[in-house]
Each structure stands twice: as structure tokens, then as C-alpha cells.
Design a protein that fits this description.
Helix content: 25-40%
CATH superfamily: NAD(P)-binding Rossmann-like Domain
Number of helices: 7
Shape: globular
Distance between the termini: 38 Å
Strand content: 5-15%
Radius of gyration: 20 Å
Number of domains: 1
Oligomer: single chain
CATH class: Alpha Beta
Structural class: alpha/beta
Order of helices and strands: EHEEHEHEHEHHHE
């Protein structure tokens, strides 16, 4: 048996939402690097992300998304890959959350993913395209975090939406998966004014080298799922968090220093 694993996206048309910066931008540029034609959707007027088409759209305007999906399909001829990456967050206690904030978080993080997938996936089916749909979730969709009730709920919903769509679209060869990033160095943490002491504290609980992830770490996983290498993976989430969610009770500071048992081992004869 020969092994032929391809990460080449040449000839593929991809759509990435929320790609003006951060994870979305890294995914869009990685797709282009591997040969895909990329359309970007974001609410900002001007986008410096390397892409072939740009659509300005506030994804909280849910009613506009079915028409937008149809227009992008017609403009590109077809769509092979859809990445629902756009997300919004507010850091606030549960009793501070307004109806406006709750609805906007749900609209951007969850509703937009569904109502953009709907027209794209229907056309994939009609065109007999074994497409790829990738939802960018979060470790907050798996374990909760304080002062993030709306964000947690939206990402948890996105996780189950991913599985639901995987079931319904699987018979047509369309895969649906989620990426669940943990603490990744992006602009959103500046937007939320995360204190430096909290950032340093968080690093103490990340097993993999005690560092936050980079946007390229998430983009690499997206390329894998979008390529031929990921053709038999569906309904799953890939957690990209340096092991953060593995450690239910961080106790390193209470343990004696690590000492290698191999340090004084005699060399083999």
C-alpha cells in the first residue's frame, strides 16, 4: 500500500469569515499559500488580508446571509471550503449581560455559522461537491470560563451544530468539523483589556512549554481538515490549546522539581 497524503488546495475555492485579523486572517493566508482561491468576509470596510475576493458584511445581520452565500457562490463559480471563523466576545458577569450583548454574541458566533452554511452546503449537494465546512469554536465550547456566559453558550452551541451538520451532510461526502483554540495570541485579548498578570498566570497552567499558541497553529489544523488528508474526519473537534484543558487540577508548584532518571544511566555496551 502506498501512502499519498496531500495538503495541496490548488483548484479549491474557499470562504473564510472574520478574516481581517487574527485566526481568520492566518487561515485565509494559509489557504492561499497552499493554492486555494480565497474569499474573505468581514465587517470592516478595508481588509489587508491577502485574498482574491472581499465582502464587507456584519455577520450579526443574519437575514442578509442566505443572499450573501448565494452571491459568493455565483461570483466564485462554486465553493469547496467554508470556514466559519468570525466571533465576538465581551467579558462581563452574568448579571451585567444585556439583551443586546447576548443577541449579538449569539448572532455572530452561532447564527451566522448556520445561516451561511445553509446556502453553501445546499449548493455543494446540488453540485456534487464533497466540500469541507470548518467551524472555529473554542475551548470555551468544551469547558466554561467565568464572566463569559454568552460566549461559552455560543461556542457550546457551535460544537453541537458541528456534529448535527456532520450527520446530515455526511451522506453527500461533505465533512463538518470544529477547531477549538485555547489561549492564542490575537488582537481580541487587547480588545478585552486582559491584564498582563492574568496572561502570566495562565501560562503557568499550559503544559506545552508554558506559552500561548500562535495563529499559525490554528491555521495549520484548518489546512489539514480542508485538504485530502482530512477527507475521512467529520463531526469532530481538534483542540489547539497546548494541553490546557488536559490538566484538571494544576499542581506543578506543589511538586518537587523534576529530576531525570536517565541522567546518570550508564551507556549501553
Amino acid at each position: 500500500m502506498s501512502v499519498d497524503i496531500r495538503f495541496d488546495l490548488s483548484g479549491k475555492n474557499a470562504v473564510v469569515t472574520g478574516a481581517a485579523r487574527g485566526i481568520g486572517r492566518a487561515i485565509a493566508e494559509a489557504f492561499r499559500h497552499f493554492g486555494a482561491t480565497v474569499a474573505v468576509i468581514d465587517r470592516v470596510e478595508h481588509c489587508s488580508t491577502s485574498c482574491d475576493r472581499y465582502y464587507q458584511q456584519d455577520l450579526a445581520e443574519t437575514a442578509a446571509l442566505p443572499e450573501l452565500g448565494a452571491r459568493i457562490w455565483d461570483d466564485m463559480g462554486h465553493v469547496d471550503i467554508l470556514v466559519n471563523n468570525a466571533g465576538i466576545d465581551y467579558s462581563e458577569w452574568f448579571n451585567e449581560i444585556t439583551l443586546e450583548h447576548w443577541r449579538r454574541v449569539m448572532a455572530v458566533n452561532l447564527d451566522a455559522a448556520f445561516f451561511l452554511t445553509q446556502p453553501i452546503a445546499e449548493r455543494m449537494i446540488d453540485a456534487h461537491i464533497a466540500g469541507r465546512i470548518i467551524n472555529v469554536s473554542s475551548t470555551n465550547g468544551i469547558v466554561a470560563e467565568a464572566a463569559q456566559a454568552h460566549y461559552n453558550a455560543s461556542k457550546g452551541g457551535l460544537e453541537l451544530l458541528t456534529q448535527s451538520l456532520a450527520i446530515e451532510l455526511g451522506p453527500f461526502g461533505i465533512t463538518v468539523n470544529a477547531l477549538a483554540p485555547g489561549l492564542i495570541e490575537t488582537e481580541i485579548y487587547k480588545d478585552l483589556n486582559v491584564p498582563q498578570e492574568l496572561i502570566e498566570y495562565s501560562k503557568e497552567h499550559i503544559p506545552l512549554q508554558g506559552r500561548w499558541g500562535r495563529v499559525e497553529d490554528v491555521a495549520a489544523a484548518a489546512v489539514f481538515l480542508a485538504s485530502d488528508a482530512g477527507h475521512y474526519i467529520t463531526g469532530q473537534h481538534i483542540v489547539i490549546d497546548g494541553g490546557l484543558t488536559c490538566d484538571q487540577f494544576p499542581r506543578f508548584k506543589f511538586l518537587p522539581p523534576y529530576r531525570s532518571r536517565l541522567k546518570n544511566k550508564p551507556a549501553d555496551d
